[in-house]
# Entry
Amino acid sequence: MIRETFPVGLLGCNCTILGDETSREAIVIDPGADLPRILSLLNKHHLILRRIVVTHAHIDHIAGATDLKRIIGAPIFYSKADLPLVAMMDQQAAWLDVPVPLIAQPDHSPNDEEHIAVGGIEAQVLYTPGHTEGSLCLHLPSEKLLLAGDTLFAGSVGRTDLPGGNHPQLLASIQERLLTLPSETQVVPGHGPPTTIGKEREMNPFLLDE
Ligand SMILES: [Zn+2]
# Structure
């Protein structure tokens, strides 16, 4: 599988492109900004974008999704539980002092444990509410890969002081849905460096003694 992960925008949201070498079909996760770079990487690998998946509706993760859809035509998947955050996009833009992006409704709000299959790419949606009500992760068991959004970071966990945040719920989501994955699972968080489930289970100070 082709994978490109790179920080986009003011807050360095990790955007990821997953591409299948045979079918050349691709998924983009969290196109928060920097569409020219996303488009040029899709071109570089000769990939056809089939799905746009947004882990949660914070502006730094979702702001480029609608423009990307308009340019390429791929449907946008994110949880309808995050629509209250979309409704306050003007306030989110004010926090960052950036223009208010136009954010489309999701073309599809995936269910928990729903499979998203594109070309040869097989991903499963894991709902992990807490950072936001609609936060989700994408798990690719065959790749031993987890795209964790802002739920779990290397040595840290998602903030819960913004609207829709709930700290006990976040910790329960991580314990029940993520730390139960195989230790060797590579984790690509929504910001910052990668990690593994095993490392976070053993060393993450926010998760010890829980
Ligand atoms: Zn966030």
Summary: Residues 56, 58, 61, 131, 150 surround zinc ion (CB under 6 Å). The chain has seven helices and 13 strands. The helical segments are 35-44, 59-62, 65-72, 83-87, 89-96, 167-178, 197-203. The chain has a mean pLDDT of 97.
